[in-house]
Write a structure and sequence with these properties.
The protein is of the alpha+beta class and 511 residues long. The chain has twelve helices and 22 strands. Helices cover 28% and strands 21% of the residues. The strands form five sheets. Strands 1, 2, 9, 10, 11, 12, 19 and 20 form an eight-stranded mixed beta sheet that branches. Strands 13, 15, 16, 17 and 18 form a five-stranded antiparallel beta sheet that branches. It is globular.
């Protein structure tokens, strides 16, 4: 029996877990994926919104502004990448100016500071690559950019270090209301398949079930939050699957814009943006496409072409080439445009975080803080005397100066062995990721933490070595290393795959 069970290890679940770890509570997080941030958190624009967009007096407005104020301090405490680069909402004709003025009034009503409208000359001085058609822009100094995966991982690692239990590859199949508690029936998913089930991308057969009981449940299941809510409450809601497609440009173009540049929004959302990223790339997108399944994140050639065409309204000289394309889910509830937060009237102790689309990434820390406060008061929880708000990130060779790189390599020869040449990621970085408080189990988990495979070749040269190091550190065969989710096996057999490559001599192994 846990005090609190959190379903989902995205930014919402991780924020709740970290804030609850401030109290003397037993907290369990269950996540169907092989890593944190496997849904909407992993693939989004990475924008910390200032708060000018939500309708005043809504949950989105409140938690957006509160969350944006929390990010700078969280980045210091937890060591993730965040930059207060500011945002621009651009009008490309005088007919769009009333929209800017309306957003300015809305932002002031929401308590956003520093808002103003920049005219043509000032605007083009701020962003020289901006289209000559731009006539004015709403300037949002409080806007920022963040590595969403890095922020989620940092929150969850700090939560685990402070006593929270995390179970990955654990899918909730059913939830039952008990007398003063809930029972969660969970399926355990195998990451390493046996030969019989190694058939490609099909979902694996669960290898067993387990039962978990908790006094409080937080439903942070993203695109599946409506399904979980409907298991225990008659107050149903439905999440409509949508995806947003993105084009990621090379770091060569990372300095083309310093601000996050939005176009004037429409009824379909904030539209296609151009933004620098904390990793030095340039990100372009997204669109908004309806899908039948919430886990269908396949990209579409026509959609990506439309993203390119729309973005050229902002930057006419935007290059066609991108180093990769991707799509992320959007957990929207069309019947309920605001966040769905709190307990259904018929189910005390079940806290929803539903319809958590934009600005969910920004709002998550504030929602986690509020939920932790309410739950701790209800359970009469004392403060955790051992809580440490600070996290020491694993060393990153490609972020260190020359002196620090020399020190790392002298103390551990693995930091002298560069595996990913595009991003200068070493064996030491990969080993640290595999053995972190939230271990990296897959090639993608290593990529998102270290950037191995995020460069121009997209893992074309380093993936065999990355898989070999993961296998060695986890004590499995290299052919059993998954790219990401169960079913995404890098190799379907042992012949002609990484196991047959010449052995890579790693530092300290000898000849």
């Amino acid at each position: 029996m846990y005090d609190v069970a959190i379903v989902g290890a995205g930014i919402a679940g991780a924020s709740c877990a970290r804030e609850l770890s401030r109290f003397a509570l037993s907290v369990l997080v269950v996540e169907a994926g092989s890593d944190v941030a496997q849904g909407a958190t992993r693939a989004n624009s990475g924008i910390v919104h200032g708060g000018y967009d939500p309708v005043p007096d809504t949950l989105k407005a409140r938690y957006n502004v509160e969350g944006s104020h929390m990010y700078p301090q969280l980045a210091v405490e937890l060591g993730f990448s965040f930059k207060n680069n500011g945002s621009l909402v651009v009008a490309f004709s005088e007919s769009e100016r009333p929209h800017l003025e309306a957003l300015l009034e809305r932002g002031i009503a929401n308590g956003v500071s520093g808002l103003c409208i920049a005219e043509r000359d000032e605007l083009h001085a701020m962003e020289p690559n901006l289209s000559e058609a731009a006539v004015a822009a709403l300037v949002v100094p409080t806007g920022g950019i963040v590595n969403p995966y890095g922020a989620c991982l940092a929150l969850m690692e700090n939560a685990v270090e402070n006593g929270v239990e995390l179970q990955l590859l654990t899918r909730v199949a059913n939830i039952e209301k008990l007398d003063g508690a809930f029972r969660l029936t969970c399926e355990k998913l195998p990451l390493v398949p046996d030969a019989e089930h190694r058939t490609g991308m099909d979902a694996p057969t669960p290898e067993g079930t387990c039962s978990v009981e908790a006094r409080i449940v937080i439903n942070a299941a993203g695109a599946f939050s409506g399904v979980l809510n409907d298991m225990v409450s008659a107050e149903h809601f439905e999440i409509t699957p949508r995806i947003g497609e993105y084009r990621l440009m090379d770091t060569e173009f990372g300095g083309a814009f310093s601000h996050t540049v939005f176009q004037t929004p429409t009824a379909n959302g904030k539209g296609v943006l151009i933004t620098p990223t904390t990793g030095g790339n340039l990100l372009v997108g997204p669109d908004a496409i309806r899908r039948e399944r919430p886990d269908d994140t396949a990209t579409d050639a026509a959609g990506l072409e439309a993203v390119l065409a729309a973005a050229r309204k902002t930057w006419p000289d935007l290059p066609r080439g991108s180093i990769t394309n991707f799509a992320g889910t959007r957990s929207s509830c069309l019947e309920h445009p605001d966040f769905i937060l709190g307990e259904p009237s018929d189910t005390t102790g079940f806290f929803n975080i539903g319809g958590f689309d934009s600005p969910g990434l920004t709002a998550a820390p504030a929602v986690g803080r509020e939920y932790a406060r309410v739950i701790a008061e209800r359970l009469h929880a004392e403060p955790n005397p051992d809580f440490n708000p600070n996290r020491t990130p694993a060393p990153r060779f490609n972020r260190a100066d020359r002196a620090e790189q020399a020190r790392l390599a002298a103390e551990d020869p693995a930091f002298g062995h560069v595996v990913c040449r595009c991003e200068c990621v070493t064996e030491g970085d990969i080993v640290a990721a595999v053995h972190s408080p939230v271990p990296a189990l897959t090639a993608d988990a290593v990529k998102w933490r270290t950037r191995a495979g995020m460069g121009r070749c997209q893992g074309g040269f380093c993936l065999p070595q990355v898989a070999s190091i993961i296998a060695r550190e986890r004590g499995i065969d290299a052919t059993d290393v998954a790219k990401s989710a169960p079913g995404s096996w890098i190799a379907l057999g042992r012949r002609g795959c990484v196991a047959d490559l010449p052995h890579v001599v790693l530092p300290g192994e000898g000849e």
